Amino acid sequence: MDRQEAYERAKHRVEAKIGFYVHLSVFLGVNILLALINYMTSPDYWWAKWPLIGWGFAVIVHAFFVFVFSGIK
């Protein structure tokens, strides 16, 4: 592996990690906002769990692809 190839691979890994952390931050921010809206408008039924569960699954899959399966090609 030459220097340029190693650089490109490292750059790709850094971009993938940054992309995951942006995804995680947006997930947390939006779901906190949804939970607050849910609590203030209809505290008797917690509907905010559905986007939390669905999107949470997507964040977990994203994490696996970035941190676990990153070296597999």
Explain this structure.
The chain has one domain (3-68). It has helices spanning 3-41, 49-68. With 73 residues, the chain is mostly helical. It contains 2 helices and no strands. The two termini are 15 Å apart.
Quickly count the helices: 2
Order of helices and strands: HH
**Alpha-beta content class:** mainly alpha
Unreliable stretches (pLDDT < 50, length at least 5) are none
The helix content, as a percent range, equals: over 70%
- Roughly what fraction of the amino acids lie in strands? under 5%
| Outline type | elongated
User: Major β-sheet, in short?
Assistant: none
Number of domains: 1
The residue-averaged pLDDT reads 94
Distance between the termini: 15 Å
Radius of gyration: 17 Å
Per DSSP E runs of 2 or more residues, the count of β-strands stands at 0
Ordered list of secondary-structure elements with their pairings:
Elements: H1 3-41, H2 49-68
Helix pairs in contact: 1-2
Describe, in short, the structure shown:
This protein is 81% helix and 0% strand. By secondary structure, it is mainly α.
Summarize this structure as a short list of keywords or feature phrases:
single chain, 73 residues, mainly alpha, 2 helices
